[in-house]
Amino acid sequence: MDETVIQELSGGVLSLVLNRPEVLNALNRDMVSGLMRALQRAEDDSTVRTVVITGSGKGFCSGADIKELSQEQEKGTTLGNHLRRQFNPLILAISRLSKPVIAAVNGVAAGAGFSLALSCDLRLMSDSGYFVTSFAKIGLVPDSGLTYFLPRLIGYSRALEQVFLSERIQPQDALAWGLINRVYPGDEFSERVRELAHRVAEGPTKSYTLSKRALYRGLEGTLEEALAYEAVCQDVASSTSDHREGIAAFAEKRKPAFKGN
What is the pTM of this model? Predict the structure, then answer.
């Protein structure tokens, strides 16, 4: 049987390709387990500087595998317990990863697939991609972090509209609303994603890690707490080799050669 998550490491970029194209890369147990293993690899391997998550075929991720969910319910597993065991740990693993994570949305990202994309640090979209919440279409509520990420990115009222109506969010609207960072033409998508991912991988990884943590904390805390945590992070960042290299490169008027430590 083919792997549900294909891994490829090149130039510090670990590409994770969701590989169930026949069901638009719907998330099943095997795929979630594969992603969790890959994210642990990214955490442990110092040669991994950036992670890219994308989909094979025409879709990014169509959400949870409804067939598998129905089978779980028939066995007595509630959907809430399925989330607690499978999807919630995955979203937390992405948000807590100490390396930048980029979602390369090559096609539809629906339901939990939408949530998966939003949990990543940067989101790039093909001009043939789109988002859709989908949950209301089957009488469910948003999950896998959508209630956390979506209103923070586009506001409470607009988020509710998307949840209630489940309309497609096309690339230009997604860009205008701040859901994605960039839109690329479909025929250039893979190459443009690769270029940006390698730019990120060449950056000061420790600085990125600390910045990611500080921004998450800043979402929830007070200004005073944010200022205090920034000072702590700056003490750590200023002790890194990359900081010293950045200062030297600035003085010598050259591009810094960051090593990620």
Answer: 0.95
